[in-house]
Model the fold of this input.
Amino acid sequence: MTGYATVQSSMAQSAPETESGPDASSRLGVEIRSVNSRFLDLAFRLPDELRQAEPALRELLTGKLKRGKVEMRVSLESASSGNLRAPSSATLQRLGSLEDSIKSWLPQAGALSVADILRIATNEDKKPHDYSEELLKLAKKALKELMAAREREGARLAEMLLDRTAQLRALAALAVPMVPKLVEQQKNRFLERWKEAMALSDGSTLPEIAQDRALTEATAFAIRIDVAEEITRLSSHLDEIDRLLASGGELGKRLDFLIQELHREANTLGSKSASLELTRISVDMKVLIEQIREQVQNIE
Done:
């Protein structure tokens, strides 16, 4: 199912500087997008500083999500310009020595700017901070919001599917009384044809035999067009779909199977159709079933 969540956390520290802590202005952001897919497909967009956290993030997502194409983006913003510190004499001497050495080999190399020297001095001896703990907490919060968004969409999808199953029941109810009427019409048609044939014959065939033959043909026709069994199975499948939607959980594969069975019954109903009305009902059923099939792929 589709869903979106984004959270940000500002990691300001109480002390002005620590060798292993984050910058005072560091900001960590997590964004999760989820789109429809029959299987679980995870993609991560992480900055280099947070690449080592990918296994933990993957485990977190796979523990909660079962299907969908999910992308997680993590951003880390750090503006250290407000924490500039004056370079020490030893640092300046070392930079000057290095610059002279480089220019001896590369005379065309440009000189260090003041900004270059301040940036080097600010980051000198500063160990990289491990953001894994902060990132995992933020990812859990984002995942919680994503699950809530997916649940809201799931409720809307379930409502739509229940509406489609109700329409299928209504179409099935229309088809049931049509069969006896068609059988009666066909029986009368057979009898009329036999009467016409008897009127043209020499009378060698007994009227009782002709009538029995007409009734036999009508019975065979009734058996051939009887859709009561298909309607019963279709109603049973619709009941199961409604039950699954009410129970929740992982429904995708079960609903896929039931949709296939619904389509089979609608096809059989169309193949047994002996009137334009039944054919239209079969076509309308197939349209609704296809709409259900498209949305079933999104349900988890």
About this structure: The chain has three domains: 3-82+130-148, 88-123, 151-296.
